[in-house]
Amino acid sequence: MVCEGFEGALGYYNSLPPYIFRGARGASAAAGLAEAVRYGSAIAVGDETRGASRTLLLLMTPAQGLDMSAARAALDGARGTQLSVVAVGVGDGPFHELGRLAAHSSQNMSAVDFHSAIASKFPDRSLALEVLRALPQQAELTALMRAAKAVPAS
Predict the structure, then answer these.
(1) How many C-alpha atoms does 112 have within 13 Å on its Cβ side?
(2) Cβ atoms < 10 Å from Cβ of 72
(3) Pairwise CA distance, residues 98 & 61, whole Å
(4) For residue 17, is the peptide bond before it cis, meaning its omega torsion is within 30 degrees of 0?
(5) pLDDT in 10s for each residue of the chain, 154 residues
(6) Nearest to 66 by CA among 84, 50, 89
(7) Whole-angstrom Cα distance, residue 79 to residue 149?
């Protein structure tokens, strides 16, 4: 789908069917990241049963008013799945909270500050590189964790 400008992107977003998760709004927005991770985790489990090697959940968030404990719990619950979460911080922050969350959950989450990622000669390439950079590390950490679980305790 090609969208022209913000209005085009917003129109496309609003045309999506209701079964596609579009995040939380209003009073429940603080739990939106946790809800998205739980939803993405369920999708990853289904994808894995169909042979997928990894599921990518790309979130665009202003990072304001996040329920960090709920987000940590959701990410901890997703550790056994092949889910990679990339949270792109848009707006005016506070992005340090996303960074802390990603540091806590390095196996399945990375955070990218949109504004610093696009401050280059080739902003589209820079953003793509920042978004995809952590995926191999996340996959390796997931594999190590699964191997550790498979080894019986002596």
Answers:
(1) 22
(2) 18
(3) 9
(4) no
(5) 566 665 776 677 777 766 565 555 544 556 788 888 998 899 889 888 888 878 888 888 777 778 888 889 999 998 888 888 888 887 776 778 888 888 888 778 888 888 787 777 877 778 778 777 767 676 776 677 667 766 565 5
(6) 89
(7) 12
Beta strand segments in the chain, E: 55-61, 83-89, 109-113
**Cβ proximity of 81 and 41 under 8 Å:** yes
| Both structure tokens of 67 | 């329920």
Q: How far apart are CA 136 and CA 134, in angstroms?
A: 6
What are the boundaries of each domain within the chain?
26-149
Q: Which two tokens stand for residue 3?
A: 């969208």
